[in-house]
Amino acid sequence: MKKKLASVVLAGVMALSLAACGGATDKQAGPQAGDQAAGQGDQKKEQIVIKFSHVVAPDSVKGKAADKFAELVAQKTDNKVKVEVYPSSQLYGDKDELDALVAGNVQMIAPSVTKMVKLDPRWQYVDMPFLFKDEEHAKKFFDSDAAKSLLNGQALQDNDILGLAFWENGFKQFVNSKHPLKTPEDFKGLKFRVQAGKVLESQFKSLGAGSATIPFGETYAALQQGTVDGTENTFNNIDTQKYQEVQKYMTVSNHGRLDYAIFVNKPFWESMPADIRAKVEEALKEATDYELQMAAAENQTSYDKLKQAGKLEIYELSDADKAQFEKLMEPVYSEFSNVITPELIDAIKNLK
Ligand code: LMR
């Protein structure tokens, strides 16, 4: 069954009309690397540009790895390919980056996989409460056939998206501005910002809390203005977004994960000359190794920083506390197992 992103058609039309009226300032934004590289006669060949859009801070785990990738590509291709990294939702935010990829307005994105729910609801595996035991478990999953089946999913193929790799961030924690969250009771009546999708909505519902989907780039303001009372995110995102400035309490719960996948525009990718593409793929492999080896450490550093700064009152759930949460969140499994698919959930559980 084909599931095409409806807004892509509109984005494509807009891109064309922009180009037609001379508004497209960078002709390298098109989807075909061949167009960019096609030299005429002796003319110097144009540099291939990969626009890589993401929503987090440059000094976050993903931000650092994206910059590393750009550096490696420049080195390995002798500057024949340039990766332009656009951090902090500068170019596209949560709502638009996937559409922009399909339309060829960017060539690479690394969204938190939850956001792929737009195309394939199975990506919400990452939000299933307490599904992953530790970082090693998440890494084993990235290397598994189950993970490959997501990267090669039909909906991605139908939209000419290639899934190339998984990147790690870490476990999510709760922050809020109202009171310490020590037991499920404490969540009642509060409203939390979530990334996307029904699984996260159901997770908060199971605790008697409400939720609202808010783009990452607008979350700080939403927390500051009290549009929502709190949110969930990794230590590193909490730290690098400075949520501690606008939140008072943090609960260390490790109740769910936030991880990434690298997606590229397939026609663009395949239009790169084979030798150049091989170098870019080599750079991506190295950047991925770098990302996977630093993510947990960066999260630990952020946690230590948050503790030291003393702005957030921090509570760590004990194993007994966690068991209470896990029990209350069980309905999320009965509600969503069929959507995520029992095969995928079992495959992840069996990697433990
Ligand atoms: C979020 O929206 O909380 C995350 O997706 C941000 C990110 O990309 O890490």
Automatic annotation (TrEMBL):
Keywords from the UniProt entry: Signal, Transport
Residues annotated as transmembrane: none
Keyword Cell cycle found: no
Highest taxon, organism lineage: Bacteria
Signal peptide as annotated in the record: 1-19
Family: Belongs to the bacterial solute-binding protein 7 family.
UniProt-listed PANTHER family: C4-DICARBOXYLATE-BINDING PROTEIN DCTB, PTHR33376
Name of the protein described by the UniProt record: TRAP transporter substrate-binding protein
Organism: Ferviditalea candida
Lineage, highest ranks first: Bacteria, Bacillati, Bacillota, Bacilli, Bacillales
